[in-house]
Write a sequence for this structure.
């Protein structure tokens, strides 16, 4: 097997436990890998400032794949290595379609979240759990009306995120949106959301770009994930690892299935591959 030189890790449902904590065993495994010279790269649907402080403070994290690959961020130099956004006009097209549905939605722009005030005020009705609600309320700035805000600013959008309280509607929408907006990537990252990015913004594409930037062959990369927005990354990595709590499509895309995120699955898989 090729020597692993880069490990990319989804956060929610993968590196973090279901209560959004970094376990001691997972932290120890990451530190062990970093001491061997392996790049440890969080790869998340979140924007950089929305990552848990415990992750942002890891001293060996030099790069972050954020917003599902819409940004590859160089932490040490505080700069974007590469990124991909959808035009604000296209984002407004999507939002007009979403206004027909029983959902709330937001967008990420310039590394921060924004949401229509009315949606922000009703977030508790649509949040999957208390952790999701906290993230919505703490990582979004409410604006009077999001479509008007985007038109006024006139700059690109990194991601649109939709929250559902009707899971049947979510399934129908997850099937419909790729057909209605074929120029965008439609994925999920938590049980009741849908996310849309530009066609070029995937975790897999971002992983390949970062590996190329660092002079690391794809075969020497390893990636962990649990949801649909992780599939491209698992497919493009030399070793793709799905968590036991992952959905079936993610497991099918993986080379290896690690234990559950609440059972230190990342640590167990890292130790397995580094010792064999």
């Amino acid at each position: 097997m090729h020597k692993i030189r880069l490990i990319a890790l989804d956060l929610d449902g993968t590196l973090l436990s279901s209560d959004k904590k970094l376990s001691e065993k997972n932290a120890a495994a990451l530190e062990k890998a970093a001491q061997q010279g392996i790049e440890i790269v969080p790869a998340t649907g979140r924007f950089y400032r929305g990552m848990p402080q415990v992750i942002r403070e890891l001293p060996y994290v030099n790069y972050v794949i954020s917003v599902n690959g819409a940004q590859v961020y160089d932490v040490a130099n505080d700069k974007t290595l590469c990124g991909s956004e959808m035009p604000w006009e296209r984002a407004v097209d999507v939002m007009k379609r979403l206004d027909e549905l029983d959902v709330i939605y937001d967008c990420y722009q310039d590394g921060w979240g924004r949401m229509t005030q009315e949606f922000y005020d009703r977030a508790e009705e649509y949040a999957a759990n208390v952790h999701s609600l906290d993230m919505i309320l703490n990582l979004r700035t409410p604006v009077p009306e999001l479509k008007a805000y985007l038109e006024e600013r006139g700059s690109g959008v990194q991601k649109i995120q939709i929250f559902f309280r009707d899971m049947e509607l979510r399934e129908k929408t997850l099937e419909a949106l790729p057909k209605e907006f074929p120029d965008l990537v439609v994925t999920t990252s938590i049980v009741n959301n849908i996310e849309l990015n530009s066609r070029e913004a995937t975790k897999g594409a971002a992983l390949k770009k970062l590996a190329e930037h660092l002079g690391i062959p794809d075969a020497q990369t390893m990636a962990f994930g649990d949801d649909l927005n992780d599939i491209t990354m698992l497919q493009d990595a030399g070793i793709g690892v799905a968590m036991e709590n992952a959905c079936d499509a993610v497991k099918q895309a993986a080379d290896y299935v690690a234990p559950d995120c609440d059972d230190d699955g990342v640590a167990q898989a890292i130790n397995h591959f580094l010792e064999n």
Remarks:
- DSSP finds twelve helices and 14 strands in the chain.
- The first helix runs from residue 24 to 35.
- The chain has a mean pLDDT of 96.
